[in-house]
Amino acid sequence: MSVSIFNSYEGEKKLLKLYDQALIGLGLEYEENYVKTRYGKTHILTTGPEKAPPVVLLQGGNTVSPITLSWFLPLTKQFRVYAPDTIGHPGKSEQVRISPSDDSFGKWTIDILDGLGLSEAIFIGPSYGAGIILRTASFAPERIKKAVLYVPSGIASGSIAQMVRKVVLPMLMYKMYPSEERLIKAVRPMFTGEIDEITKQVTGAVFRYVKLETNMPRLAKKEELIKFKSPTIVIAGDKDIFFPAQRVIPRAKDIITNLVGAESIPDLGHLPSKDNLNYINDLIIRFIKKEK
Question: Which residues make Cβ contacts (< 8 Å) with residue 54, sequence separation at least 6?
């Protein structure tokens, strides 16, 4: 029997209510379905033109798919976007934690593609989602047509001491003594610019009600990506406290064989501001549409 990732049933209800609120707020026509994987049921949001090229959008860690989807809304006008709730993370998928250090997430991703009837797809992954793409690239590289790794885990990490001081300790204080002021202090280091209200609320609910996934996807090795030939771009932020561009981009150039673009965006933190998103989406769409 699986153990819930939530601290309480009431906490789960509150977070899933925010999930639905965030989803409705996107103003999209969408479908909600489940596919079976070897690790359990996976909930998938589907939106965009039915006959358009398929894009699999993998959510960030310790958040919900509608938040991730909100960053890439322009894609839904030109592509068929599938946004699975990562298994073992907040959302509507099975509450089963699987290892981010072995082939488990690669197998999970392939089960999703098989369940959707897709032989391959374009993959976009922010943060934890990018790490899942790299696990998939190691396990079944032929199933990835193109890859966008955005503020990616799985390549290089920032200062642990800085993360603890600026994020972890304020998060623990908020969890013990919840207040608006403490929540803002906990999320501020992840943002640049204005703090998005629904993202703030979801993050606060995750901090309070979820047993956080603290294991990040392991750092990919050059030798395990040797067969991964699909065109790939990396977009990183020079103000990202978790995966700073200054560390991510040099290593990405070393380990990813067909890295066709690597961009450091000035003043971009881990969570994007509205000012960043138009440029980021334009960059991604041009990359996807490019023939080679």
Answer: 79, 80, 82, 116, 118, 121, 122
Q: Looking at the domain assignment, is residue 3 inside a domain?
A: no
Nearest to 261 by CA among 150, 122, 130, 121: 150
The radius of gyration of the chain's CA atoms, rounded to the nearest angstrom, is 18
How do residues 143-156 score in pLDDT, each as one tens digit? 999 999 999 999 99
For residue 260, what is the domain's CATH number? 3.40.50.1820
Can you tell me the distance from the alpha carbon of 43 to that of 88, in angstroms, rounded to the nearest whole number? 11
Q: Domain of residue 71: give its range.
A: 9-289
Each residue's pLDDT tens digit, 14-26: 999 999 999 999 9
Report the candidate in 75, 92, 85 with the shortest Cα–Cα distance to residue 28: 75
User: In which element (H, E) is residue 174 found?
Assistant: helix 169-176
Which of 93, 88, 101, 77 minimizes the C-alpha distance to 34? 93
Please check whether residue 2 lies inside any domain of the structure.
Answer: no
